[in-house]
């Protein structure tokens, strides 16, 4: 979405300042440690190239990770650019002033105009989708208010619940496989096969939690993911069938190689037993138990934040509605023009144009004799304003602790990575040709005294200790890195949520109209005349107004608010509905149906014309009065002459 500058601030601040500071500090420490390691490696490259290059590779990897964290933290601290077009509209915006923005955000809108109409008229919220899958229904039955959470939070909760179900399934399968292998159902190699399966179970558990620790995907988390119970069935079947197949295949393979090498099956089994005893104790189940303990602590923090967030959810679907009938002398188009250009424009927030989700395009059907009908619809949203959400001090404390602990675990992983580098160097030195020759000379005597198994046991014990140390460090580092990402991503989701409040208006108007003529100034002596066509309209409006609370998830960078905005709450707004009604009624009552003269010059000219008419009518009236006087005089003379004769 393009940045549209405006001098009026919309009041949306950067929500990632605290997270950015902590991440930048962690990245700075990682980068400093990596630079120190690289300087140490530079001194060893000439004297011991192998060791030097191992340290160089590890130091470079740590430096890349540190610079990435440092740059990401600093990036989160920079100015949070918010234009006049943010956040994303609910549906496609048909406003002419936002044509370029609408084309850019059309793939990010969460609804259509028809869906908004259904939500307003039907008093429903299509945001709250039904859970998909057996496990999702179980989770929403345990936590019913999870249904009212935004999609990223719901997906995070479902991913965490799925990880726990898979972990418990692995533990159950581990018990089943232990019974199968140790009781002899997997063949003669069952006991030797069980450690192999334990390692597979551990790796599977690590992969499950690694997948659950993923953060917000701005492309994938625009809907609620499904969570079915098929994974449980697959895990159980895998746990029962795979050990049997592996045991059977391994037994056949050992038997084949025993025949080819001239050794008996029992001898090869005894060799494998000696190898297992010589290797240090791996104990994959202890790692699984450690994952359960650490995962419980991390999940407790996430569940606590979810509980605090769900307590403020108020999923009401209420609207204010007006249905009436008005009989007014007004042309139908003037109703829509006034509503769009005056009534709704006066409700803009800081002069930001309203979001037009359905354009006001009135349809007039004219019939004969000046009669007809009309209809028109409009859906507009006033510019959303930031709605602060206070979840309490305990919520902020848990969120901050999750952020701090997650970044601290990243630093621990950095130290373990350096330890891994030096352990790998020890293994390289152990398997150098000079070391191998010395071991062969030393084991020659043991071969003569104790036989082949004694030599194998000593050699495995010497190299196995180094290899197992490296494996332990890798596993511990991987586990800590997984839960570090789990905690930081969980905290980031709750930092990223921003809520908005806006007025959503749906206006529908239908009716009929008739035309008639009215004339004024038609008297005998009137000098001016006004003829007007009067349109009498029967108006049936349907107005629905609601205060919408919507939620979106921000990010750092150019796409900071390019994420769908979902409606969470719909509240009545009787005051806004009353004001809209009063504005429309005031316009209808204050209209002039008869044309009159308002210009001063026109009034002066009309007065002059009226004076001329008055003077023109004055001449014939004087002549009539003179004639009446003459007639009276003549009558008097006739009467006088008649009296004289008598």
Q: Considering DSSP H and I runs of 4 or more, what fraction of the residues is helical? A: 55-70%
Oligomer: single chain
- Helical segment count: 16
Shape label: elongated
Total beta strands: 9
- Give the termini separation: 119 Å
Q: Summarize the main sheet.
A: 9 strands, antiparallel
Strand and helix order: HHHHHHHHHHEEHEEEEHHHEEEHH
Q: Report strand %.
A: 5-15%
Give an overview of the whole structure:
- The protein has about 650 residues and is α+β, with helices and mostly antiparallel strands.
- About 60% of the residues lie in helices and about 15% in strands.
- It has helices at about 15-45, 50-75, 100-105, 115-120, 135-140, 150-180, 190-210, 230-260, 265-280, 285-310, 330-345, 395-430, 435-450, 450-495, 575-590, 600-645; strands at about 320-325, 325-330, 355-360, 365, 370-380, 385, 495-520, 530-555, 565-570.
- Helix 6 (about 150-180) packs parallel to helix 8, helix 7 (about 190-210) runs parallel beside helix 14 (about 450-495) and helix 12 (about 395-430) packs antiparallel against helix 14.
């Amino acid at each position: 979405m393009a940045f549209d500058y405006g001098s009026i601030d919309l009041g949306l601040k950067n929500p990632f300042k605290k997270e950015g500071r902590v991440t930048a500090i962690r990245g700075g420490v990682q980068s400093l440690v990596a630079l120190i390691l690289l300087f140490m490696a530079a001194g060893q490259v000439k004297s011991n190239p192998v060791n030097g290059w191992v340290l160089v590779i590890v130091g470079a990897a740590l430096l890349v990770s540190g610079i990435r964290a440092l740059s990401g933290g600093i990036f989160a601290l920079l100015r949070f650019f918010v234009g006049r077009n943010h956040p994303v509209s609910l549906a496609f915006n048909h406003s002419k002033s936002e044509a370029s923005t609408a084309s850019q955000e059309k793939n990010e809108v969460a609804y259509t105009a028809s869906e908004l109409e259904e939500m307003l008229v039907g008093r429903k919220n299509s945001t709250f989708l039904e859970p998909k899958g057996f496990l999702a229904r179980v989770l929403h039955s345990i936590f019913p208010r999870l249904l009212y959470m935004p999609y990223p939070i719901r997906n995070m909760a479902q991913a965490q619940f799925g990880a726990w179900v898979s972990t418990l399934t692995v533990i159950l399968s581990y018990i089943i496989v232990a019974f199968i292998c140790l009781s002899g159902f997997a063949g003669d190699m069952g006991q030797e096969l069980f450690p192999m399966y334990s390692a597979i179970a551990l790796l599977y558990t690590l992969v499950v939690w690694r997948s659950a620790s993923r953060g917000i995907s701005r492309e994938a988390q625009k809907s609620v993911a499904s969570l079915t119970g098929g994974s449980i069935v697959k895990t159980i079947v895998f746990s029962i069938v795979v050990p049997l197949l592996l045991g059977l295949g391994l037994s056949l393979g050992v038997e084949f190689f025993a025949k080819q090498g001239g050794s008996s099956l029992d001898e090869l089994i005894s060799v494998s037993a000696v190898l297992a005893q010589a290797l240090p104790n791996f104990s994959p189940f202890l790692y699984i138990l450690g994952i359960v303990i650490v995962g419980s602590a991390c999940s407790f923090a996430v569940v606590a934040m979810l509980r605090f967030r769900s307590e403020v959810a108020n999923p009401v679907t209420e609207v204010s509605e007006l249905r009436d009938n008005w009989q007014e002398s007004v042309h139908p188009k003037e109703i829509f023009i006034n509503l769009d250009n005056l009534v709704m424009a006066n409700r803009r927030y800081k002069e930001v144009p309203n979001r037009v989700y359905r354009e006001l395009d009135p349809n007039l059907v004219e019939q004969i004799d000046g009669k007809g009908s009309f209809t028109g619809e409009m859906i507009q949203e006033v510019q959303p304003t930031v709605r602060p959400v206070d979840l309490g001090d305990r919520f902020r404390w848990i969120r901050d602790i999750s952020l701090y602990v997650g970044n601290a675990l990243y630093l621990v992983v950095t130290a373990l990575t350096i330890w891994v580098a030096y352990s790998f160097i020890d293994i390289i030195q152990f398997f150098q040709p000079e070391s191998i020759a010395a071991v062969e000379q030393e084991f020659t005597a043991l071969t003569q005294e104790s036989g082949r198994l004694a030599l194998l046991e000593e050699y495995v014990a010497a190299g196995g200790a180094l290899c197992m140390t490296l494996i332990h460090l890798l596993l511990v580092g991987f586990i800590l890195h997984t839960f570090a990402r789990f905690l930081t991503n969980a905290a980031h989701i709750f930092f990223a949520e921003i809520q908005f409040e806006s007025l959503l208006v749906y206006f529908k108007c239908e009716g009929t109209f008739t035309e008639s003529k009215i004339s004024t100034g038609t008297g005998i002596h009137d000098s001016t005349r006004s003829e007007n066509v009067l349109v009498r309209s029967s108006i049936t409006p349907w107005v629905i107004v609601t205060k919408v609370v919507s939620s979106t998830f921000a990010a750092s960078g150019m796409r900071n608010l390019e994420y769908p905005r979902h409606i969470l709450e719909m509240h009545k707004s009787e005051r806004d509905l009353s004001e809209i009604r009063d504005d429309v009624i005031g316009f209808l009552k204050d209209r002039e149906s008869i044309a009159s003269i308002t210009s001063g010059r026109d009034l002066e000219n009309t007065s002059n014309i009226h004076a001329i008419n008055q003077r023109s009518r004055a001449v014939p009236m004087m002549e009539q009065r003179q004639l009446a006087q003459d007639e009276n005089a003549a009558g008097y003379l006739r009467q006088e002459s008649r009296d004289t004769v008598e």
